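Workshop exercise sheet. Pairs work together: one partner reads the sequence aloud, the other fills in the structure field after running the prediction. Swap roles for the next sheet.
Pair: D.N. / O.F.
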Amino acid sequence: MKDILVLYYSRGGATRQLAEAIARGVDSVPGAQARLRTVPAVSAVSEAVAPAIPESGAPYAELSDLDECTGLALGSPTRFGNMAAPLKYFLDGSTPQWLSGAIAGKPACVFTSTGSLHGGQESTLLSMMLPLLHHGMLIVGAPYTEPSLMRTRSGGTPYGASHFAHPDGAGPFTDDEKAIAVALGKRLAEAALSLAAGRG
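Structure field:
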């Protein structure tokens, strides 16, 4: 089985829902399995320490998860058109993987959630691609062969899966958003297996 790392940060649970849908897509591909991981919040208080294990949800990611994965799905809520600081902080610590080329040539995709429909979904997805390109990863998007991409009236872009969570974070996870996320996870897993077979 090839592990596909689904790495995300989520405060209110919307990005976590997307991560779980992407993981379902990954797990639907024979020979692939999703490895769900999150990152702790970043505190402005220098003495603050997060518990070693989160109270709920996925375990915290370690840099070794990047080394061991065959593909990567990276997700974050939108913060002023960019990824959230905790995810950026984790990626900023991945210099050893950049130096060794540990994830170069592996496929990756991105996903996000926003409080407003035009609150920076696409700019967040595009900015999340930048560190992955520096790592030499191969970006996988959501093609328009996925019918939900043309139908959606909420989240979903060709750059990656997205969710319109509404300002209170209680926006429904629509069928189209779910379909795009699952299809993206499946596409990532298929690309990862194909590339791994070519390298093997």
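Discussion prompt: DSSP finds seven helices and seven strands in the chain. What would you look at next?
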